[in-house]
Request: fold
Amino acid sequence: MDNPRSMHLLLLLSVFVIATCGLIYELVAGTLASYLLGDSVTQFSTIIGAYLFSMGIGAFFSRYFTRNLLSWFIQLEILVGFVGGVSSCLLFMLFDQVASFRLILYLLVGITGTLVGLEIPLLMNILKNRMEFQDLVSKVFTFDYIGALLASIIFPLMLVPQLGLMRTSFFFGILNVAVAMVVLVKFRKEVKWARYLTFQSVIVILLLTAGFAYADRLMHMAESLAFNEQVIFSKSSPYQRIVLTRNKDDLRLYLNGNLQFSARDEYRYHEALVHPPMMCHQQPANVLILGGGDGLAAREVLKYPSVRQVTLVDLDPAVTELFTGNKMLEKLNQGSLRHPKLKVENEDAFQWLRHQNKTFDVVIIDFPDPSSYSVGKLYTNTFYRLLRGVLTTESTVVVQCTSPFVAPQSFWCINTTLQQSGYATLPYHCYVPSFGEWGYIMASPGNVADKGLPLPQHLRSFSREAFAQMSFFAEDMRAVNLPVNKLNNQALVHFFEKEWAVYQ
Amino acid sequence: MKLSRSEFLRYMALLAGGAYVAGCHEGGRYNHITGKITGASAAVGHRLREGQLPAPQQEIRTKVLIAGGGIAGLSAARALSLAGMEDFLLVELEASTGGNSASGSNDLTQYPLGAHYLPLPNPENISLLNLLEEAGILTGYENGVPAYEETSLCFEPSERLLYNGRWQEGLIPQFGIGPKDETEIRRFLALMQTYRDKKGADGKWAFDIPVANSSSDAVFTSLDCSTMAGFLRKENFTSEPLLWYINYCCRDDYGAGIEVVSAWAGIHYFASRRGRAANADSSAVLTWPEGNGRLVRHLRKFSEKQTMTGTLAYQVEQVGNEVQVHVWDHQKQQTTKIIAEHCILAIPQFIAGRLLQYETPSHFTYAPWLVANITLNRLPEEKGAPLSWDNVMYNQQCLGYITAQHQSLRQSPEKVQVISLYWPLDQLEPTASRHNALKLEHKDWVDQCMTQLEKMHPGIYRQVNNIDVQVWGHGMVRPIPGFMTAPKPTEPERISFAHSDLSGVSVFEEAFYHGERAAKRYLNSAAHS
Reply:
């Protein structure tokens, strides 16, 4: 291909591609910055400013390139493709990891801008001896601006919705390097260090292609870095974000970023949750579990031969389905959610209770912590009075009640609320390493006392002897004079917010 | 001040701080929003003025005819029914009773079309406490203090205010105000507390609900001579956030601001409530998804068989020992003469005057209102206090919005919500404002409401699906200076008046009081004859 006209065309086409890529990198950086840092006006204008300024720096330095222009141009293309291509992936990964994310952001924008700024002047220098100057300027800038227009249109309309940010930058990185390779092949006679450049461009293109292909996993990793563990499942249900992580042999469930259990010590939590109310009933046959869609409390309940039926009411079918279908998780809950004695109802507990006429011997309440007004309603006197409708005087109830060490006022506020709603209570606590010192309150319309029901064999931590210690509260876990939690004061949510604030 | 539709719109936009260009709805960005205008059947009501209805073809006899099925009419019916007097009829112009406490519903929720809450009744207001107990809203007494149904008490968080770009708890500006403002706010609230605790020489509370039970001691009634704004100037209150707050409260309860209402009425708002609850703060309010529609549902039970809806009383005349009332059923297009021993006109004075052919006293003026029920996808979470029952923006034309689903016990975040925007149309004098408001089309109201809502939540228009607009032409009586001390309209022997406007304060308690009072007047006269 020695026809000079087609050579010119090729170089001009590469201007077009370069311009498109250049603007895309700028848009990716701007979008990412406003996505991660917020305040899109500031982010976009500072990114665009920094980018244009860096291009100016690049243009300034172009004067120092006087020989082997074509080779430098190819080298530049490979570099731009690499830096621009990996930029969004790098930014996603580093967002939670580095102290000064902005520094990294502007550094990347600066490097990309400088390299892009070098490209056009370099290309013009290459073409200046092959074309009329007037013709050259006109053509180069025409292609440059058309490329920019194309980029600005396809970026919001096609690329972001179809490919996502990470794939977009990988894709344009590949295009950039592809330009380098085509020029390399077509002009191989004029290019110095051709083998070295070929080698380099192949490596970079492979790297970027791999990034493009595995963008989903990379995205996943970025998320798992934030959790310090490997995310093995994540899903947004209409109610919450469900994330399951694994770290060696530990499996953890997070709902909306709050740890629900760690497989290493969940037995401590669930044994302490289930066995006390069971042993305080003569012969528990009908058991109700509110919340607890992971089936772990149900696993403990099903260890009692006297139990005939377990009803599990959990709002979110996404959670109960996850813990029904998955082998690894079923190993953990021992397939409790598929047990013939167990019935799952995916309903709102408040609404569900309103339409019940059955009574239950034991009720296990394993709701999320009262961190929002909507969950706070499930800890009010109105809720506990409604609950009374499904109880007999013999029934026992247990409520998971956050940490009496971190949040004593929250814990004892629930106790006051239960007492004021007509229950006798028995508060206790248990140490769960991944949670810390955790609290529970047993309650009954009658009295709460050990009825001598034999405990299942092979419990790992709970025993009657252990329970004697659990029901003793040291001075640093006590609080007095707490109000009743009501729909019209949401006192608990206020306490909870205040007491956990230091740990956030 | 007569304005064309576009002039009025431009004027409203100007007040709202925006620019309005006739026919240019910002590139039709609200075109996706559906909805309709609902409202008191003004067209039917206007037939009253025009006359020309056919002569009655039939005659009915009853002991008491109640004209008007708002809270006053329904309360009168209840009082009669409780006294064992079931021989009465109630005629209501609209398709259903409820008046200003009417409610609507869609697939998601019920929502109020007007009045939407009831503050805790004062301990002396036994009738009202009994009503609430009867409805199951008051569940019992603890040491003499009433306990209320938990689901009827407004859930926390109840109020938030958007001030200086940040949502804060409560409606009194707290953050970002100066020390002078803080001092004045404290001084004002303390002053109102002293008025709340005061009794007149006649041993009555200086300010009470119902208004009729308030002291007639001149020390207090003299406050009826000046405006609230005049009183505040005299007392040296100049803090902008404080004046905004007081003005907000007056517009909320009276449909008119501090420059319009009397000092007596302005103070009454802050100093007349001494209600308590065993299970809530004294500042608590009772509210329901359907607003005071909950109370209407209970009151209706007492007049189910006696109610004739879609029916307008257009002529009332005392003839000898009976009252002859001509009514028009606008669905069947037929007129009926109802002959009664007594008639209770549970309608506003401006209509009563027309029926009885006397000039309604000039101090009866009525503020037009707008209530817009807006269906939208979830409201965004913003800086500061979370979505509350009542959500208000500082220095705004409308009074903000309440969330109909606030009293819901559901966990699930509803994807679609209904909010009710409240807006007293007090930019112009009531007559001009009403006149102009009734001319507006649905799309004009959408523009108006969205301008207000967009200020609170920029970009929210994308989330909005539907806006139903309820225009209350004569929404609330305005307690202007001189109202409280003006002589009450005289009632003919066999005709009683029952409406909250007689108190000058358009609230549930007053309507209920006047309904019961009128029923008692009849029962007493019947007992003596």
User: Anything to note?
Assistant: The two ends of chain B are 52 Å apart (CA to CA).
